[in-house]
Amino acid sequence: MSIKEILKLFMVAVLMLTVCGCGRPTIIGTDAAVYSRGSLYAVSGHDLNAVYKATLTTLKQLEIDISEKNKDVFYAKVVGSIADGRTVTVRMRPGAGEATELRIKTSKFGNEERSRVIYGKIQQNLKGISG
């Protein structure tokens, strides 16, 4: 094999990995969370309104300043600022039935520990909210 052929093969492999691995991870079941590519993806067994309320409550409890909040029937988004200047973005979409899909991203490149703390607190707050 020549160097050109090896280089072409390598480029095709990189392209395939890039194209095939760009979507969100597949999550089975509710109340599950997977961290991938800088974001925590989760599915809650509660409706969009309840998850939105729990998210707002969570950010306030964690002393995260809310700088943006948007919600309609199809989508909700809450953005906040942490004291160190980084941002937190929580995106929500209604799923099948009463389920809601969440995507939590903390800072530009993501922070799994912070994302999981926020998700855990949202889950706690959902126990006290009725849809």
In what range is the share of β-strand residues? 25-35%
Tally of separate domains: 1
Instruction: Specify the overall morphology.
Output: elongated
Quick one: how many beta strands?
A: 6
Secondary structure category = alpha+beta
What is the C-alpha radius of gyration, as a whole number of Å? Answer: 18 Å
* Helix segment tally: 3
Order of strands in the sheet with most strands: 1-2-6-5-4-3
User: What is the CATH domain class?
Assistant: Alpha Beta
What does this structure look like?
With 131 residues, the protein is an alpha+beta fold. The protein has one domain: TATA-Binding Protein (2-Layer Sandwich). Helices cover 36% and strands 30% of the residues. The protein is built from three helices and six strands, in the order H-E-E-H-E-E-E-E-H. The protein has a six-stranded antiparallel beta sheet with strand order 1-2-6-5-4-3, with helices on one face. Helix 2 crosses helix 3. The longest helix is centred in the N-terminal third of the chain and has 18 residues, at 3-20. The protein is elongated. It starts with a helix and ends in a 5-residue tail after the last helix.
Give a quick summary of the entry.
By secondary structure, the chain is α+β, with helices and mostly antiparallel strands. The chain has helices at residues 3-20, 48-61, 112-126, and strands at 32-36, 39-44, 65-71, 76-81, 87-94, 100-106. Helix 2 (48-61) packs across helix 3.
